[in-house]
Structures are given as structure tokens and as C-alpha cells.
Specification:
With about 325 residues, the protein is an alpha+beta fold. It contains 17 helices and 7 strands. Helix 11 packs across helix 14.
Length: about 325
């Protein structure tokens, strides 16, 4: 079970106004409506999704994520929000999110992917696409656009926005808010951002403040890390990347929101090796897939990052002392 900051819950309830029983809805996730706002107060993600679904019983929530996004302000995110504002340009702002996302959620991972058309800002979230999750994903995307508009010197809109889940009953509100085509039922939850808009200097960009805030955020990030989490997250990202070939450490670091240097240092501090974790992940995936008759040996080789089955056979024999075919026959 993951966690999200209670800031999101308060914002979602706050923008709904009198359409819901705000006190009752917040109480459903253990938040006192009269208590001081604290972004570090975390909520279980499933309870948060349930809270949104409770609101859906009291009001039409089609436009709710857009209203929530519009209401978000950088200062409400603490040091991370200040780092967003102080970054030299929007690319720097989005890079901070990709690097420090774990400070306010363990549910969603954020990545930047460079393409010929522009930069993709991707959010990855596991689990069934229940209504609460769909609204949360849309609100997160809307927040990214709102925060960009608050720091950009020029009018800002993505090139396009995509969501994996089905479209609501109307998408007119979404296209009007984002100012670009919005596609549902896509292969990822993402915004495509132009290189030109990302290079525009932020109105409050300050290199000195950025360095100070990055140092502060690095310290906060170190405080929430532990060996099992780092090891599990690293192996999970390696597993996702293997079908595209053997992953590089810098690419996995980026997926985890870390610089390559920080990633290497943290692995070393905890007695871990990227090469060893990669090898363990490949072995574990191979063994699991060999238990399933529907996977051919050539498919398993490909999905564990080997370009040739012969290389996979040699690696597996080194791990287990027998070839993959012999191992499968013994099951």
C-alpha cells in the first residue's frame, strides 16, 4: 500500500465547496478539517481513492481534477514547491519532480523522456484503475500544468495530454483546461511538453536558491530511504526496462528520480551493486517464466534482456548449473 500527502485530500475537498460534507469526507481518511495543514502528513492511497469515490456519491466529479489542479500553488509543496519556482527554467522544475517525487508520494513515479516531438513527463502508477485513482491521476496532471503557468513568462500549454483510462462522459472540460488535444485509452499517463517552453526562463528562477534547496531536498530524501525500499524499487525498475535490452545505471537512476552519482553512492552505502541487482532480477524473472509453459525460451531470453538465446542459456547455466530447457523439464 502506498501513501500520498494529505495536501491533495484537503485540496480536493476544499474545491468541492458546499457540494459535499467536507468534514465527514476528510474524517473518512482521518484528517481533521480544523487542524493545521501539513504536507508531510501522509494518507494510504487506497483510503484516498475511497475518499474521492465518496465525494462522487455527492457530486459530479468530472471537472473536479481540473479545478483541483488550477487551485494548486507551489508554496503548498514546501521546499519542493520552492525548488520548482526557483529552478532556472521549466525543464529544471520538472526535473526536480522527477528527482524528488518520493518526498510527497510513494504511489506515483515521475519520469522525463526526451522524444523528437518534445519532452514527455510521465507518471507511472500501479494498481486497478478505480475511479478514485483515475481522478487522482488527472488532478496530478492538471496540477503540473497549473504550476507551470504560474512560473512561466509566457502562456503555457502542453502539446498533448494522454491518459491510460477510459474517457469520462465528456472531455470538453479537459481540452479547454489543458489547451491541447487530450487522448484517453492511451499507453501511458503523460504530458508532451515542447522543448521551447521548457527552455523559457522561470520568472523567479534563481541558481543560488536552487542549489540550496536541492541540498535540503537531498537531505530529506536520505531520511526516508531504507535498504529494502531502495533494493525493491531498483529491481522493479530493472525488470520494467529489461524488455528494451540491458538497462544502464544512469537510466534506472533517472527512473527513480536520482542522479547517477547519488544512486551509485546510495547503493554503495547499503552494500548493494547495480550489476548484482541486475543479475538477480534477470535470474528471478527467468525462473518465474520457466514455470509458465506459454513462454518460449526465446521469449524469456528477450524479456530478460538477452539479444540471443545462446547468451541466455550460458547465463542461466551459470546461475543454476543446468540449461533453461533442462530446468523446465525438471519442474
Amino acid at each position: 500500500m502506498g501513501q500520498v500527502t494529505s495536501l491533495f485530500a484537503r485540496k480536493v475537498v476544499g474545491v468541492a465547496g458546499n457540494a459535499i460534507d467536507a468534514r465527514m469526507v476528510l474524517a473518512s481518511v482521518g484528517v481533521d478539517i480544523d487542524a493545521e495543514w501539513d504536507p508531510k502528513h501522509m494518507l494510504d492511497d487506497e483510503e484516498y481513492y475511497g475518499m474521492i469515490e465518496l465525494m462522487a456519491e455527492q457530486m459530479d466529479i468530472t471537472s473536479l481534477p481540473l479545478i483541483v489542479g488550477e487551485a494548486m500553488r507551489p508554496d503548498e509543496y514546501g521546499a519542493l514547491g520552492l525548488a520548482w519556482k526557483a529552478a532556472p527554467n521549466l525543464l529544471g522544475s520538472f526535473s526536480r519532480v522527477a528527482r524528488y517525487w518520493r518526498l510527497w508520494t510513494s504511489v506515483t513515479q515521475y519520469e522525463l523522456e526526451d522524444t523528437d516531438r518534445g519532452m514527455l513527463f510521465v507518471q507511472r502508477r500501479e494498481g486497478p484503475r478505480r475511479l478514485g485513482m483515475r481522478i487522482s491521476i488527472e488532478a496530478t496532471t492538471a496540477s503540473g500544468v497549473s504550476l507551470s503557468r504560474q512560473v512561466s513568462p509566457r502562456p503555457f500549454s502542453p502539446i498533448e495530454v494522454t491518459f491510460q483510462h477510459p474517457a469520462p462522459k465528456t472531455i470538453a472540460h479537459h481540452e479547454a483546461y489543458f489547451g491541447c488535444p487530450v487522448h484517453f485509452g492511451a499507453d501511458k499517463d503523460a504530458m508532451l511538453l515542447s522543448h521551447q517552453s521548457l527552455a523559457e526562463p522561470n520568472v523567479l528562477g534563481d541558481e543560488g536558491i536552487t542549489r540550496f534547496l536541492d541540498s535540503h531536498l537531498d537531505q530529506e530524501l536520505a531520511q526516508i530511504d531504507d535498504t529494502p525500499a531502495l533494493q525493491t524499487q531498483t529491481k522493479g525498475e530493472i525488470a520494467r526496462a529489461l524488455s528494451e535490452g540491458l538497462p544502464k545505471m544512469a537510466d534506472i537512476a533517472r527512473r527513480l528520480g536520482l542522479s547517477a552519482r547519488s544512486f551509485h553512492r546510495r547503493l554503495a552505502e547499503q552494500g548493494l551493486s547495480f550489476q548484482t541487482l541486475t543479475e538477480e532480477t534477470r535470474r528471478e524473472i527467468a525462473i518465474a517464466m520457466l514455470h509458465e509453459d506459454r513462454y518460449a525460451l526465446s521469449e524469456i531470453a528477450f524479456l530478460t534482456g538477452y539479444s540471443e538465446q545462446s547468451a541466455f542459456n550460458r547465463a542461466f547455466k551459470r546461475w543454476m548449473g543446468v540449461t533453461p530447457a533442462t530446468y523446465r523439464k525438471s519442474l
